Structure formats: structure tokens, C-alpha cells
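Methods, example record. To illustrate the input and output format used throughout this study, we show the complete record for TetR family transcriptional regulator C-terminal domain-containing protein. The sequence lines were provided to the predictor; the line carrying C-alpha cells was produced by it.
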Amino acid sequence: MTQPRTRIQQKNITTILDAALEVFSQYGYRGSTLDQIALASGLSKPNLLYYFPSKDAIHIALLSSLMDTWLDPLRAMDAKGDPKQEILSYMHRKLEMSRDYPRESRLFANEIIQGAPRIKETINGELKELVDAKAKVIKNWISEGKIANVNPHHLIFSIWSLTQHYADFDVQVRSVLAGKEDDPYPEAKAYLDLLFTKLLTP
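The corresponding predicted structure is encoded as:
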């Protein structure tokens, strides 16, 4: 039987994962090293290896915990709710995640760009099944005349791209908006509300 972790062990694991998130989101998987993660965590490399046997193990642990957070907003889309509001609410939650979890967004983006070698099974399984199920909900709303005839899968893709852009290209966004908007998110929300409201109106 596996012994429960002590408070100190749990604290060290949390510290390592937070440091790894910072390093991976900045340098990508290939550009990151265990030495960098150990330095960022304030722990020795042997201490880090006590908890995680490899860089890959740390990366997988981060991605595994991230997937649930990433999929929760789409899970919350309610087939019984008002279609337009459900889709807008999903977009809002994704935009909030870009604002509140930019490192996590970049970690996920880097993994996908590399071909998703560590989460391909989840992408092909849980994520695809969820997207397909919600696309079916959107298709039903379209057939009932409640929203415009749009491609459900590409609607979801467009929400991903238009919200995650603000996290993944944060430096570019803030550089272009320098002197205009200290915080790009309020205007981004207003713009995306207008864009998707017009798109979805029959």
C-alpha cells in the first residue's frame, strides 16, 4: 500500500510543479532542463529526482492536471440552456482562463505544436469525444433555428483560437496595444461578444 504523502512532501511536489510550469511555459519542453526546474524550485536536483524520475514525468504530471481544467468550461455548456448565452459563456470562460492561466495555456500550446506526444491519447479520446458531443448539441440548436447555421466544430476551434491568442501571444498583444490599453481583456471580451453574437444570430 502506498503511504500517504506528508505535508512537506506535498508542499515540495507543488513547488516543483509550479517551477516546472514557469520553465516549460517559457522555454518549451525541449528547451527546458531538470537543472533549470531545480533552480526555479529552490530544491536540489537530487531532491527533485526523489519526487519525479525525469523531466518527462514532470511534464506529464503538469499536462494531466491541466487537461481537466482545460476541458471543464466546455463540459459546462448546457444543452438545455439558451444557445447563444451558453456559447458566449463558454467563450467568456476560455478568455478568463487565458487571463488567469497564461502559463498553462502556453504549456498546452507548446505540447500541441510538438504533435502532442505526451497527451495524444487524451486528445484522440476524451477531448475529441467531448468536442463531438458539444458539436452535436450545437447542431441541434441550429436545426431548431435557435442560432445561425455555422459549422459546430469550427465554431469551437474559433473560440479556442480567439481566446487563447491573448495568453499565447501576450507579449505581442501588449506591445501592439502599448499606451492604449493597460489590460486588453475588457475590450477583448466586448469585441468577441459582438463578433459571436452577430455570427450566431439567425
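Annotations derived from this record:
The chain has a mean pLDDT of 93.
The chain has two domains: 1-53, 65-200.
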